[in-house]
Write a structure and sequence with these properties.
Layout (H helix, E strand, L loop, with lengths): L3 H10 L6 H8 L3 H11 L12 H15 L9 H4 L6 H20 L11 H20 L8 H15 L3 H32 L1
Helix pairs in contact: 1-6, 2-3, 3-4, 3-8, 4-7, 7-8, 7-9, 8-9
Length: 197
């Protein structure tokens, strides 16, 4: 039986170029979800990145806007299509991600299939992804506040890939908690600045 982890592993071990464009070709209509997983996996790590992940978050938000606009397949500028996802460090990260996906596949099963595959569900997926990625992007560098919203996007996208509504809902809950944390921290900072002025 073909699983998401097997498909991703075949892509990593295949002869084709390891680019964002070739990944989108392999996964077809599911390419939005797999690309969101790959792009947001780094911001989801509980490590201070100092804003390095902002490029990944911007690409994620632009792709989410494509989903909101009703696109079923990814459109990327030629330069982004050629973005290499290979290399020693990236392949190690992909290996770690594959292990996490395999672990989730053991517990996940298709649930709420009627929610997936519709144009409207794609638009909602895009809106949720954008709504969680924007606060991750706006979170102060080195604060670690981008972690929870980013984990939310990754788990939601995995839920869509595995057609598991429960996993997707868990991603929404995690992401919402992250958004609340970013907004709450931002409010505290603004209150502190007002008191100083």
């Amino acid at each position: 039986m073909s699983t998401v982890s097997n498909e991703l592993e075949d892509w990593v071990g295949g002869d084709q170029p390891k680019t964002l464009g070739s990944l989108a070709d392999v996964f077809g209509e599911r390419s939005f979800a797999i690309v969101f997983v790959l792009l947001m996996a780094l911001p989801a790590l509980p490590l201070p990145t100092g804003g390095v992940t902002h490029v990944l978050e911007v690409i994620t938000m632009l792709l989410a806007l494509e989903l909101i606009a009703g696109r079923r397949e990814i459109w990327l500028p030629a330069r982004w299509n050629r973005l290499e996802l290979a290399g020693a460090k990236r392949e190690r990260a992909l290996g770690a991600l594959l292990r996490r996906i395999r672990w989730l596949e053991r517990f996940s099963r298709p649930r709420g299939l009627w929610l997936f595959g519709h144009r409207l569900s794609g638009m909602v997926f895009g809106l949720a992804t954008f709504s969680m990625t924007l606060p991750a992007f706006l979170a102060p560098p080195f604060s670690g506040l981008d972690t929870l919203p980013s984990i939310g996007v990754v788990v939601l996208a995995l839920g869509v890939l595995l057609t598991d509504a429960v996993l997707a809902a868990a991603g929404l809950v995690i992401g919402t908690l992250g958004v609340v944390a970013v907004i709450g921290f931002g409010n505290l900072v603004l209150t502190g600045i007002r008191q100083l002025v």
